[in-house]
Design goal:
Shape: globular
Strand order of the largest sheet: 1-2-3
Mean pLDDT: 96
Number of strands: 5
Helix content: 55-70%
Largest sheet: 3 strands, parallel
Radius of gyration: 21 Å
Structural class: mainly alpha
CATH superfamily of the largest domain: HUPs
CATH class of the largest domain: Alpha Beta
Number of domains: 2
CATH topology of the largest domain: Rossmann fold
Bound molecules: adenosine monophosphate, tryptophan
Length: 330
Amino acid sequence: MTTEVKRVFSGIQPTGELHLGNYVGALSNWVKMQDEYDETIYCVVDLHAMTVPYDVEEFHAARLQTAKLLLAVGIDPDRSLLYYQSQVPQHAELAWILGTITGIGQLERMTQYKEKADKAGQNLGLFSYPVLMAADILVHRAHAVPVGDDQTQHLELTRDLVERFNHRFGEIFPLPERITPEIGARVMSLQDPTSKMSKSDPNPNSRILLVDDPDVIRKRIKSAVTDSETTVAYDWDRKPGISNLLEIFSFFSGRKIDDLVDEYAEGGYGRFKEAVAEAVIDGLTPIRTRYKQLDDAEVAHIMERGALDARARAERSMVEIRKAVGLAGY
Ligand code: AMP
Ligand code: TRP
């Protein structure tokens, strides 16, 4: 199997709306990697989103909205493959095969499973979620996977499965590498800087959405929880709120954290927050503008085209995988 071509795969769930953490931690790399790799494949992982209770109509609308946002942030359908996971049944087929070499104990250790099962209740889909995620990556034999910090454990499981599979059935899969940004791999909640910014946080003030208006962005940053001191400093232990804002500021301004600390250390939190807000607004405005211009029917068409192409590619992999495990022919 050729490994000459360097391929990227990543996925995002169509639950709730995309936020700053998604963008800084993962999506900005998705966009950048379009210039750096031979093939980039991005997927709205709708099957994953079904593992917690959901409203059918909202879910269906969120799929399209997520696809639209991916286009708005800069995923270019002429350079990247973009599709809905459910439209490519080979993902689920490979997940079954990988499930047969996955240990129960290993799945029981997944922190995301424990957290979600505590909130949403246990189900088999939620439990085997990391196996489907491994299948997403491996059905495309991807080399690099841009994700936020919270996916580290899932990527480790994927790598274990690659080693186990290749050892048992032959060198079929490359070992995928996790790609996380140096700054902003874990953007924290604006209301509780010790927990990550999340789509499912009941408090909307905890996050900034990619399509939020400038006024909303200003308000959210202004009300971000910090500390009772007055000096801007980068210190995650003592000043997690300020450190989080510094990382966001650094990402959007393209400036070094030390530089920002030098400039804003003494001017008070108010002035600092205003500057952070303006940098975020400048960064998100083009995304919001493009989002508004996109036509639903056109996006649906792009997704349909993507599914066709993705099915053909995934099937080519599956032919080799089926052969390797003894499922080819009659
Ligand atoms: P999800 O919204 O859980 O489907 O996540 C989509 C992508 O965004 C994944 O690569 C996550 O690791 C990343 N991500 C989600 N929340 C954050 C966050 N607060 N900071 C950085 N990356 C994040
Ligand atoms: N589990 C990822 C998340 O919650 C989403 C995801 C599913 C994914 N399949 C993937 C990410 C494959 C990267 C590669 O964010």
